[in-house]
Amino acid sequence: MGWLILFLPTAAVWVVLIGALINHAGPVVTVPLGVGALLGAIATITQEPWLLAPVVLAWAWGVAMLVRAERGTR
Q1: Is residue 62 within 8 Å of residue 20, measured between CB atoms?
Q2: 8 Å CB contact between 9 and 55
Q3: Cα dihedral 59, 19, 37, 25 sign
Q4: CA 5 centroid distance within chain
């Protein structure tokens, strides 16, 4: 059950990162998502729950920059 708590935020970051890469988002979007995905993978492998905070923050930052970039193009 503990790995599921670590896996879900990591999966969310990976899904958004893959979507951003498919849509050719800029580095301002992909770098925080990439960092979050890497930290999430490390958190899942090492079972360190304290790494969830930076994963969620990187995900939120990446999503916010993705929304900001999309609003700027319209």
Answers
A1: yes
A2: yes
A3: negative
A4: 15
Six-digit token string for 35:
């960092």
Tell me if 37 sits within 8 A of 13, measured CB to CB.
yes
Biggest CA–CA distance in the chain, Å, is 43
pTM listed for this prediction: 0.84
Residues 62 and 34: beta-carbon distance below 8 Å: no
Tokens describing residue 24: 């050719």
Six token digits for residue 72 = 């700027």
Do 51 and 15 contact (CB within 8 A), yes or no?
Answer: no
Residue-wise pLDDT for 25-49, tens only, equals 889 889 999 999 999 999 888 888 8
Residue indicated by tokens 């905070």: 53
Question: Residue 19's CB: how many other CB atoms inside 10 A?
Answer: 13
